[in-house]
Design brief:
By secondary structure, the chain is an alpha/beta fold. Helix content is 23%, strand content 42%. The strands form three sheets. The protein has a four-stranded mixed β-sheet with strand order 2-1-4-7, with no helix packed on it. The chain has a three-stranded mixed β-sheet with strand order 3-9-8, with no helix packed on it. A hairpin with a 3-residue loop joins β1 and β2. The radius of gyration is 22 Å and the shape is globular. The relative contact order is 0.20. The structure holds copper (II) ion. The site of copper (II) ion has 7 residues, from loops.
Length: 122
């Protein structure tokens, strides 16, 4: 009887440990989801985001008007095209602290040169 009780207590203790450890592990791997709209008139909105070294970022680029593009070799963002009515999702993991200015890669109108997304890695 004593052994039986011990087994039950041990099993619950293990379960408790698992439930404490599991969320910590998954939150470290869970990407930070950031949504940015891309439009011919409001450009990237917001035009500045903050992300964290070592934490994956799931960047959701919502195409509102005009065709736009994004790419950053430094940040590991692949060449991605954003079209109206679609959401382009890119995932990258920043490795170095800094402020990165990413320009729209596709000429999209009068304000194209001003179309930047500032990504602060902290
Ligand atoms: Cu653009």
């Amino acid at each position: 009887m004593k052994h039986f009780l011990f087994a039950i207590i041990s099993a619950s203790a293990l379960g408790l440990v698992a439930s404490i450890v599991a969320p910590t592990t998954s939150s470290a791997a869970t990407p930070q989801v950031v949504t940015v709209a891309a439009s011919a008139t409001t450009l990237f909105s917001p035009n500045e985001i903050t992300v964290h070294v070592g934490q994956p970022v799931e960047l959701r680029l919502v195409g509102q008007s005009g065709v736009h593009g994004i790419q950053s070799g430094e940040l590991g963002i692949p060449n991605t095209t954003i079209t109206p009515g679609n959401v382009a999702t890119v995932t990258f993991t920043p490795t170095k602290i800094g402020t990165y200015t990413v320009h729209c890669t596709i000429p999209c109108g009068m304000d194209h040169a001003k179309m930047t997304l500032v990504i602060k890695v902290v």
